[in-house]
Design goal:
Structural class of chain A: alpha/beta
CATH topology of chain A: Rossmann fold
CATH superfamily of chain A: P-loop containing nucleotide triphosphate hydrolases
Helix content of chain A: 25-40%
Order of helices and strands of chain A: HEHEHEHEEHHEHEH
Radius of gyration of chain A: 17 Å
Number of strands of chain A: 7
Strand order of the largest sheet of chain A: 3-2-4-1-5-6-7
Oligomer: homodimer
Distance between the termini of chain A: 42 Å
Number of domains of chain A: 1
Chain lengths: ~220, ~220
Amino acid sequence: MDVKVLQDILAANENLARENAKLFKDKGIFVINLMASPGSGKTSFILKTAERLGNKYNMAVIEGDIASKIDSEKIKAHGIQSIQINTGGACHLEANMIKKAINHFDLEGINLLMIENVGNLVCPSDFNLGESARVVILSVPEGDDKPYKYPSIFRDCSVLIVNKVDMIGLSDFSIDRLKVAVYKLNPDVNIIPLSCRTGEGFDVWIAWLEENLEYCR
Amino acid sequence: MDVKVLQDILAANENLARENAKLFKDKGIFVINLMASPGSGKTSFILKTAERLGNKYNMAVIEGDIASKIDSEKIKAHGIQSIQINTGGACHLEANMIKKAINHFDLEGINLLMIENVGNLVCPSDFNLGESARVVILSVPEGDDKPYKYPSIFRDCSVLIVNKVDMIGLSDFSIDRLKVAVYKLNPDVNIIPLSCRTGEGFDVWIAWLEENLEYCR
């Protein structure tokens, strides 16, 4: 792509992201930009997080997909307010899409907004949405070498969730090899292994999240 | 992105892809553009295919990744000629990258060129490389709803490999639900379930491939 055009797009996105961030801060909303490959368990992770938080916090979800309303319908079926963004073809969410989507929510009283980005380990990492934190999910069947191949997304996240740890042993995945690869890129990241299926490891994630939610109030 | 700029990029890519395709046809090389999410088993699939073809055909591999030489080193360790393309940040391969990469091969005598695209279910589908066929891999842990969310890549492929079928039963993945979703987009696609780990299902894939290789000679 033409470098100038890309720079203009990114600069315009940064401006809108800052406006979103200011609004979220004013309203006391902790916002997570959740990024991962297709099929790593993003929606299951959101649902399990909601189940574990219970009625303690008020949560909203923005679902990003190229097509379909599958994920937002799944979220709504659990009584959680949710908006679906269909990008049409675009491989990532941008700040202007979030700016429009949040008009559908009553922001007063929302404590936590989870934004499920389009399933993609590459493009979403270039576009700030105004989030408070970036959380990346890598699932065990994807393999432990992904940080070497897709460094940008692992470099710029606060938390790396390693999902589907109940599948360790079915392939040659090594959590230690993964940690070596990730810490080289991002020494301060919190790596949290868990399973959305069995629930193991969720205490650590919920503790991190609640600490940040309390700080935001 | 600016629509005009995108159109110009795609048109320039199409021209180069046509040149690549002509060269491949003249040399009698069957070229596969292999596309999938990160971690779906693209490299394992290439290695198992090479093992199954044995010395019957002469194979070369182009590996596409944002960073690292992990995959091309893995391929070379099995005695197969391979070139690594590092895109630097780009989320897909383009025809000009292939045009440069093939200068590193002696094309005389090559029957099969497998191009492993950057792990991404979105962006690679817009860029022809001059391939003879597009093969998409979806692995069982990714889930059976992906065609609804990423329609473009499933619409434009000749073969859909369903990898890691040895993991069926560990999640709620249904091959029948997947087929319904895929055939709606692409009624003519060959859906081939297999496992790179156990080798089951590979006979069907190798039969399809050999038929096309013979046709190319």
